[in-house]
Amino acid sequence: MKIAVPLLASLCLTAGAHAQQPIVFSTESYPPFSYQEPGGSYRGVGIDQVEIIMRDVGTPYTLEIMPWARAIAVAETQPMHCVFAAARTPEREPRFKWVVPLFIDRSILVRHAGSKVAAATLDEAKQYTTGTHRADYTEALLKSLGFPKIDLSADVDTTLRKLLQDRIDMMPMSEGVYQKLKADGTPIEKVMLFSEQHLGIACNLDVPDELIVRMQAALDRLIKDGVQNAILKRYGIDELQ
C-alpha cells in the first residue's frame, strides 16, 4: 500500500501535466481547407472548425502550416500533437486518436482542361501518369489500386503545376478544392470520381482520451447546430449530406 500512494501521485501529476500542455496542431496549405492569408492570419474550412472546437474545449493550442508529409509525421511521433484534415483510412486508424468529421471528402481525378485524357473506370485511368503528394492518403490508395505510373511531389501546389504544364496526366483532388479552383479560373476538368473519405483531426496516441472525448463532443455540437455547414457554405463548398 505504501507503493500505491506515490504511484497514484505520479499518475495525477502526469494527468495534470497533460492538462496544462497546449495541443500543437499541424496542417498543410490546401485552400479552401487551410491556408495563410497575406496578412498572416490562418483561415479555411478546417482551421475555422478547429478554432471553434478548441475554444469550446478550453484547451490552449498552437497551429503551424507545413508540408503534409512532415505535418502527419510530427503528429504521429510527437506527444500532444494533432494534424488535420487527415483521411481516416483503415491503415491510419490504429496510429492516431480521431475527431471526425471535419469534412466528408469526395476525391475526384482531374485533368488539364482541353487534355485528351479520358477514363470512365479506374482500370481505364491506370494507363495515365497520375500525380499526388507524398504521405497523402491518395498515394497509398493509388498504390493499393494498382496504378503503375505515380508521380510524387512535395506538396499539392507542385502537383497542380505539373498537371497544368502537362508533365502528368491526372491528379486526385478534393471535390471542394476543385470547385474553388474552377471558380478562380484554374483550367482543370473532372475526369471521374476517385474515392470518398471522412477527413478529421488525427491526434498522437499520447493525447488523453478525456480530451479527445471533449473535442469530439464539441465537433458534434458544431455539426448539430449547423455551424459546420455554414462554414462550408462560406468557403463555397457544398453542405455535408
From TrEMBL:
The keyword Transferase does not apply. Residues 1-19 form the signal peptide. InterPro entries: Solute-binding_3/MltF_N (IPR001638). It comes from the Bacteria. Pfam families: SBP_bac_3 (PF00497). Transmembrane segments: none annotated. The keyword Aminoacyl-tRNA synthetase does not apply. Keywords: Signal. Residues 24-235 form the Solute-binding protein family 3/N-terminal domain. This is Transporter substrate-binding domain-containing protein. The lineage of its organism: Bacteria, Pseudomonadati, Pseudomonadota, Alphaproteobacteria, Hyphomicrobiales.
